[in-house]
Amino acid sequence: MLDLQIRQRLGVFTLDVAFAAEERGVTALFGRSGSGKTSVINAIAGLTRPDEGHIRVGDTVFFDSARRIDVPVEKRRIGYVFQDSRLFPHMTVRSNLEYGLRRVPVAERRIAFGPVVELLGLGHLLDRRPRGLSGGERQRVAFGRALLAQPRLLLMDEPMASLDAARKAEIMPYIERLRDEMNIPIVMVSHALDEVVRLATTMVLIGEGRVRASGPVGTVMGRLDLSAVTGAQHAGAVLHLTVEAHVPEDGLSVLAFDGRRLTVPQIDRPPGSPVRLHINARDVIVALQPLAGVSLRNALAATVIELAEAGPSSADVRLAVGGSFLIARITRAAVRELGLMPGREVVALVKGVAFEPDSGGAVSDRQGRVVDV
Amino acid sequence: MEILTPMETTALLLSLRVAGVAIALGLPLAVLAAWVLGRYSFPGKTLFDGLVHLPLVLPPVVTGYILLVTMGTKGVVGGWLYHTFGIKLIFTAEGASLAVAVTSFPLMVRAIRLSVEAIDGGLEAAARTLGAGPVDRFFTILLPLMAPGLLSGAIVAFAAAMGEFGAVITFVSNIPGKTQTLPLAIYAATQEPGGDAVAARLAAISFTVALLALMLSEFLANRVRRLIGQV
Fold first, then answer.
1. What residues of chain A have any CB closer than 8 angstroms to a CB in chain B?
2. Helix or strand or coil: residue B189?
3. What pLDDT, in 10s, does the model give residues A3-31?
4. What is the pLDDT of residues A38-81, one digit of tens each?
5. Which residues of B make CB contacts under 8 Å with A?
6. A88-92, A171-175, A229-233, B145-149: which has the minimum mean pLDDT?
7. pTM reported for the whole predicted model
8. Helix H or strand E segment including B51
9. In which domain, by residue range, is B82 found?
10. What pLDDT is recorded for position A357?
């Protein structure tokens, strides 16, 4: 759907990025501040002009330096949700929402006003001015305004960066609904891993103006060589699981993946529903044999795939568990003493998991991390 | 009982008309100049900026003299206007409007430019992504948001235009009923023996009009600010 290859000089470094995004779903451009993420979506929107390359959405070429094509922003019909909302202060919420809609010929309007207002819960705000809205409300209006402009593609520049944790939790479900109910591909810039893990289908890791890795979120997150880009404290893996059963008398739920099971505090999802977990590398312990007499309930047979240094004293171990991956952060002394090397059969003990908040995660601390599973 | 004498009424109405025409004609140009100066950089911008502000620092008599030379019936532009369209500016109320339009122009541009520069450029980028072209953006985003500055600039310039003396008397002379605006009438009164009382009354009228204009400016700007959601 989106096919992009651009080069652009940006002060100290050159942005040199190529990737393609799906017809549906959320592509997250992930990387540190100043890595060039926002420059990529500004180029897609047409707000900045790359030195060379091409940008296509579907059959439409928006930019092609070789063919001297550069469609102006206002003709691209690419929705853009800015970090700071940028609602028009002199208009009501209703007029803001209708601004883009009115500029699209009636015959080309597929997304109607009513359903968008309902999807984003804006009904009670329509006659108000942006000035009186909360940050979360403003962003929801910005989503609606961009959607109603009938975009072929929706860009979001850190849509939650200016919101506190509570507002963020309030806005995330709306982005999920956009992703799941609207047939519009979304490209989202983010430097917050929890957003990416929860919202993205595809992840494009950007560092110093280049694509360091791209692919499904679970695959990219499971790679050891990327912790420098994602930030060392984020190291961890993403598992896709299914709720298998609940054990109400113990207050537990059993989740299954690749024929393995994880037991977690009971979650509020019916059996059969999919759940995504983020398992931090610090919450995985490696043992050579199954342990007896420990309180940990989750022990998974695993194979060491690769090892990488993670710090002066620590190492990351990438483990294959069935077809999925886990990362364990342990000391380099432990690697040596246990004789860990690729191919070695081990037991991975999982002592903590983080749910995406919307998977119905129950008892969790502030980071959404469930302790002592 | 009449409050104003016929002579006072004539001078007041003439002043209002001269200033009104000047602002009506000057305002669109001032908005354009303010927009260009506030939003774009281009070669020669400093020179353009200087030319726009020149009437502010030039002695008004010099402005009037330049107008006399260029816009008089023997001047380059004035001669052309006179012979082609039969338009005569010198010694007419229209000429007085032109003179005060020139001297009050920088006041308008300054006030409007400040409000243009205060508008977040990101809003225009947002409007672009929503499909609005340059003219569309100007009328739906910029113009409403610069309205407070535009209003107060126009009213202050109007008050200043009513009080302009040097440029008017140099260009269109001091003809009662035709070009004799309030300040010119005051000057004429002070030149006549026993004209002090007349001058004092005219000065009081000028004072009242100027004060009312400033208060109106403040009031309207606040109303508009509320209307466009800035307060």
1. 45-47, 72-80, 82, 84, 86, 88-91, 99-100, 103-104, 129-131, 145-146, 149
2. helix
3. 999 999 988 889 999 998 877 889 999 88
4. 999 999 999 999 999 999 998 899 999 999 999 999 999 999 99
5. 120, 122-123, 125-133, 136, 140-141, 144-145, 227-230
6. A229-233
7. 0.76
8. helix B45-57
9. 6-227
10. 47
pLDDT the model gives residue B164: 93
Nearest CA in chain B to A75: B131
Query: What angle (nearest 5°) sits at the alpha carbon of residue B51, between those of residues B49 and B52?
Result: 65
Contact by Cβ (8 Å): A201, A22:
yes
Which residues on chain A are in Cβ contact (under 8 Å) with B130?
A: 74, 99-100, 103, 145-146, 149
Does any domain span residue A231? Answer: no
Question: For tokens 């023997």, what's the residue?
Answer: B74
Distance from CA of A211 to the nearest CA of B (A): 26
Residue B82 lies in a domain: yes
User: Looking at the domain assignment, is residue A226 inside a domain?
Assistant: no
Question: Is position B75 within any domain?
Answer: yes
**Sorting pLDDT into bands at 50, 70 and 90, what band is A193?**
confident
Residue A228 is assigned to a structural domain of this protein: no
pLDDT > 90 fraction of chain B, expressed in percent and rounded: 67
The DSSP string of B54-105 is: HHHHS-HHHHHHHHHHHHSTTSHHHHHHHHHH----TTSHHHHHHHHHHHHH
Domain that holds residue A136: 2-221
Q: Do residues A340 and A298 both lie within one domain?
A: yes
DSSP bridge partners of A154: A79, A186
Report how many domains make up chain B: 1
Is A80 in contact with B230 (Cβ distance < 8 A)? no
Residue B1 maps to a domain: no
Residue A227 lies in a domain: no
Which of A221, A244, A263 is where one domain is finished? A221
Residues A286 and A352 grouped into a single domain: yes
- State the virtual CA torsion across A177, A178, A184, A189 in degrees, nearest 10: -120
Which of A221, A250, A277 is the endpoint of a domain?
Answer: A221
The CATH number of the domain where A259 resides is what?
2.40.50.100
Q: Which residues of A touch B127 (CB under 8 A)?
A: 88, 99
Nearest CA in chain B to A147: B130
Residue from A38, A75, A80, A86 whose CB has the most chain B CBs within 10 Å, to mutate: A86
| ipTM exceeding the 0.85 mark | no
Q: Are A49 and A43 in contact (CB under 8 A)?
A: yes
The tally of domains found in chain A comes to 2
Look up the CATH number of the domain holding residue B163: 1.10.3720.10
